[in-house]
Amino acid sequence: MKVSTALCLLFGTASVSKLGMAAEIVEQFSEKHENEGYFDALLETVNEDGRHEHVTSVFEQRRQWKEARANGDEDHPILKAAGDNNEYIDAFLDLIWDWNHIINVRLHKATKTSRLIPTTGMSDMMLMHDQCDKCWSMHGAKWAPDAHLAKKHGGEGAPMVKKYIEYFYMMKLRDVEVEGFYYIVDACLRAKTEACAQDLVVFAIMTAKPWFHTLGEGYFGLAPGRGYENNQESSLLYQIYNQGMISSKVFGVHTHMFNSTEDPSQIRFGGFNKDLFMEGHDMLHVETRAKSSWEIKFNSAGFYTEEVWKGWHALIDPGYPFIALPKQAFEMFKNDLKKAYPDAPVTCSDDEWCYFVSKCSKIIDGMPDLQFTFPTTTGESATYRVPAASFLFDDRDTRTKLDTCHLGVVRQRFSDLDHFVLGSSFMENFYVVFDGKDTNVNRIGLSANPATVSSETKAPSANPEDPSSRGASGSAASLVVGIIATVVFAVFIAAVTTCICIRKRKQDKLQKAKTYFDSLKTEEEGEQIESEASRTDDNPNHFLKSTSETANEKLVGDLL
Question: For the whole model, what pTM was predicted?
Fold first, then answer.
C-alpha cells in the first residue's frame, strides 16, 4: 500500500505535522525482514492502520473481498495467498493471563482474529458459537460459518454432539459439559508465514453446563484421534495436512511460562526447529501408546521419593499450563510432599492443588525436582528432570494480603482419565516434537543432553566363543566387587563414627542450654509470681502453643 493511502486511513484530514509523523510510522512498519525464503512479522503488526507491508489489515481485507465479489470471484483473495515457505509454518505462542498459550487463527467471516489454545488432548477446532448464552470470552471475536455440514456428520439440525472439557481459567481448574454442532469455515494461521485452508470443519459450542468462560475463543485440537466423521482422517490435524496448510503431520513446540520478545514461545507446524534446542541437546524419541494418541508410557516418576509412580502414561500437552494427575496419583503425590515437608505449613485441597503459606522464594532452594523416566526407541531409558522453578507459582490474596506458593501439580477432576498431563511446566525445559508422519506409529521427541538423562548404558559384551575372554571378564568382575565391598564398609564405619560424635556434641550443648534456662528460672521466679495474675490469653504469640515445639524448645534448637 502506498504511503499516501495509509496516511488517509490513519488520519483522514490530518494536519501537515501529523502527516509527517504518520510517514515515519508507515516507514517503520514497512521494513522487510527476509530469512531463507520467509519473513518474520513484527509483534505490533497493527497500530490503528499503520501496519507491516506484508500484513493486511481488516479494512484492506474487506476492500479486496468486495472488489473480488464485484468481479464475480467467489474465492477470498487473502485465503488464496500462499506463504513464501512451503515446508513449515512458525506461529507464536502468546501466554495470556490464566497461564494458557494461544495461537492466532483468522476465520473468513469474523470480526477479528480468534485466539485459540493449541492442545494435543482434542481432535477438533472448538469455538464458541455466538448464540451460546453460558459462554463468555474476554477477547470477544465473533464469527459465522462459511457453509453448513451435513446432518449425518453432526451439522446443524442433527442431535447436538456432547463433549466434556477440563481446562484452566484464571488459576482455577474447571470442568464443563458442552453441546454443539459442526460447521465449515475458511481459516488462516496468523504466523511468520501465513498459511490458509478452505472448508475446515470446526465444532461450535451452543450450550455449556455449568458455563464455559475463557480469555480466548476456544481450542485448536492437534490430537490424531477421531474427528467429526468418527475417524482419524476427519481430525483437525489430518484436515490441515490434507488441505495443504502444513506439509507434514509433524509439529515442534518451544515454550516458556512467560512472554519474551527475545526468545518467544513458538510452535512450528510441518517440522521442528533445531535452532531452538538448548546447547548440547539432541532428540530422543518415545513411541506413543497408539496411532490415535500422543500418550506415552513412562517407566517411573518421582519427587521426594525416587519412585512415587510406576508404569503410568502421560500426555504432553502445550494447551495445559501445569502438570495434572489422576486422583490416585495425586494422593500419592500429597503423601510424598508431606514426607518432604512434615512441619511446613502446606495445605492440599481435595479438588485442586497444594500450596505453602509463604513466598516461593523461601522454599524453592530445598524443593526436589520432579523426574520422569521414559523408555526410548534406542532401548535405553532417559530421565527428564523438572526443576521447582517450573512448577512453583506465587500468589497473593488481595483481601487478606496473604502470600502463598502454589505447586503446579494438580488433580484431574474426571475419574475416568487414567493418565498424567505434562503441560507447559514440563515442556519449557525441553523442546518437544510430535511426529505423526509414520503410518504405523506416532513418536514424541524430547530434546535433552544424552549424557545427563541416560539411565541405562549398554556395556560391550565379551565374545562367548572365547573361553579366555570369559575368564578375564570373571576375574575383573571379582576384583571390582571386592573393591566396592571394601569401600562401602569403610564408608559405613566412618558414617557411624561421625554420627556418634555429632550426637555426643548435641547432648553436651543441650545440657548447657538446660542449665542456662534453669538459672533464668531461679532468677526470675519472683517476677513470674507477681505477673501471674495479669496474664491473659490475648498474647499475640499464643500460636506457638499449637506448634510441634514450645518456645523454649525453639530457643534450645537455635542454640544447638
Answer: 0.67
